[in-house]
Specification:
2 copies of one chain form a homodimer. The first copy, chain A, is mainly α and 196 residues long. Chain A has a domain of 136 residues: Tetracycline Repressor, domain 2. Chain A is 72% helix and 0% strand. In chain A, helix 5 runs antiparallel to helix 9. The longest helix of chain A has 27 residues. Chain A is elongated, with a radius of gyration of 19 Å. The first copy, chain A, binds a DNA duplex (30 and 30 nucleotides) through helix 2 and helix 3.
Chain lengths: 196, 196
Amino acid sequence: MARPRSFDEGEVLRAARDQFWSIGYAAARVDDIAAATGLGKGSLYGAFGDKRQLFLRTFDDHCAELVDAVRRALDGPEAGALERLRAHVLAVADATASDASRRGCLLAKGTAELSGQDPAVEATARRTFAAIEELLTSCVAGAQRAGDIKQDEDPARLAGLLLAVLRGIEALGKGGSSPDSLRSIAETALAVLPRP
Amino acid sequence: MARPRSFDEGEVLRAARDQFWSIGYAAARVDDIAAATGLGKGSLYGAFGDKRQLFLRTFDDHCAELVDAVRRALDGPEAGALERLRAHVLAVADATASDASRRGCLLAKGTAELSGQDPAVEATARRTFAAIEELLTSCVAGAQRAGDIKQDEDPARLAGLLLAVLRGIEALGKGGSSPDSLRSIAETALAVLPRP
DNA sequence: TCCATTCTTGACTGCCTCGTCCAGAACGGG
DNA sequence: CCCGTTCTGGACGAGGCAGTCAAGAATGGA
């Protein structure tokens, strides 16, 4: 009953996200986003609203994907909880170290640039951090039940520490720390987890 | 022999820094910086060059001050090294939590926005992280010699972990984590340091 | 006092960027 | 095969931006 959209929304959002991711929100130009997506500006504005709304959409989607990825990495039987935790922390360090484009993490970049100016960004960031922390808490608690981490520690506190270390690795990686440094941090964080 | 400058360079740089700090490099307008400093744009350009050079100057100065502050917090006799470390980590958490303006740390913000696009920013960030890490290493080593931290741990690795935790606290604070969460992270990080 | 020199101011330029708008295109129901 | 509706693409306008410039002001030495 009307002309259908000729583009895939997911692809367009990914292309837009890459623009924001590479150079930041303020520096990204709507014309470049239009060129990258292959859409005319009219279509872009018609489908997603203005630049801010488009950013919020890509930011929210990205954060949701991030949480899903962490969930996939950490979910599983209690017996392997510590091993999954270990693998995840090391994977984050390695991924950060080998990020050739040095774009870092969009969550970190968006939060640094806009949280405190844009309540919507801050809300998404807070929600995302909380979700990841909860996944970490579950995994730590699982490892405790499996007897791999000391039982009388508060899993939420250890998870908070691990979350801070993960975000710190990300921050240091963007600052140009060496792959060895990042891996060393990850290993040390895992090594200091209290064993039974 | 010529007209002298009517402004204090330090004050102007501080005012400019606050503009970049509040809204980021790309979003800061040279006209606003001029208004904030009280200078005309001509004086600003004459004294500091273009916007990028002005930013690099404020960024470098700020990082140097940051390193000095950490040095003042951590330097001292070996006997009190662990206590100074403890006080510093907790102070960072509290300062981040009570940052009403939620500007976060200029080092983090500048690095997130520009490192990877501007080699000069990346170099300053790397240098600053390395300097802080070295101060932490010295302090950890002092605490080890004083018998407050387990002797056979590599001080550099523990310092790397602490640096990551500090940067992580900063990142989470900008994301809106609660003061309690941040303090808990700091306390947990201190608690897991291996004792003799 | 006069002059060479450097500093100050803000108007100005030219480019860039967001967001709008409209003429035309693609669709599907009737 | 129409026709109402939605989508498309890019030209356009209005405002914003970084950086320049020229006219005048403040200084110290001669």
